[in-house]
Amino acid sequence: MLPQQYIKFQINGHSKIFIHFPLGSRYSLPFINFSFGPFSRLSLISLALEQTSACKKLLTAQGRGRYFLRLALKRRILGSVVLHLSHTSKLLEWYNPTISIVRNDEFMEPFLSLLLVLSELEFNLNIENCSFLDDSWLLPVCDVYEIVPCRELGMVLRYLGGRVFVLDLIEGSQAQVDGCVLPGDIIDEINGISLRNASNRQAGTVLAQLRGAPLSLRVLRWRAEDGSVYRPVVRLLQELQREHPSLWLRPTSLPPPRQESQCLRDGRIVYIVQYLGKASVGMYGGKEVLQHGIALVLEQNRPKKV
């Protein structure tokens, strides 16, 4: 183990920030641990982990992993997460040294340099829109609507696949007049209460308890931003249409499901890449040599003049 150098700052005589750098290391990302009074044990990373484990919208390890990565990007701590992981031997045991970046010293430093660049960027991610991370990286259009107090909203709901779908709107009801929800949409939250994996009539129970109070609905749209059907709900919407042939998905009926493209398989984004070659960039593999290395490889692949 290399000795650690600590730099301590005090804010108003109470709050403390500890930054420690491994001496002799070329890593440019320090692991930063914030401690504020009674919360001295909680770092930014542990806070993100606690928020992830407490999220009731996530039911699988894959969904929680995707949520944590989005949270780390938004809070600009992904580099600290990876660096902390690389210094924790018990966690490294779970990674295969033949295929994992964190177990490969040759790739680890440029990877950390890339994460340093990401830590300078601002990711405008809607963390609350996470109910479909169990199924896919692709997220639905998410809208939040504030509704004035009323006796009844006038929504006919159907519970299917752990989701609460809007099946129909009662003629002349508050929901129909406001136009905030449409048949096929999913009610994700009511006043901050998650309906993910809700039991039958749970949404009705929540609405009954809030009768006469202002409502805040988080709605997930069945239609994606490009106008197509949001792909993770295609199967569920088809099942709803078989059960209720009168279900009308405005402005057009539900099209047949599209074949999976090459860039999305089993809910994972896949990129097709081509190996072009390699070039020597010297002993230091920081981000500053990337442009030079790319130019060398491209030069190697140019057709030779005859």
UniProtKB/TrEMBL annotation:
InterPro entries: PDZ (IPR001478), PDZ_sf (IPR036034), Run_dom (IPR004012), Run_dom_sf (IPR037213). SUPFAM superfamilies: PDZ domain-like, RUN domain-like. Gene3D superfamilies: 1.20.58.900, 2.30.42.10. Pfam families: PDZ, RUN. It comes from Paramormyrops kingsleyae. Residues 152-207 form the PDZ domain. Residues 1-130 form the RUN domain. This is Uncharacterized protein.
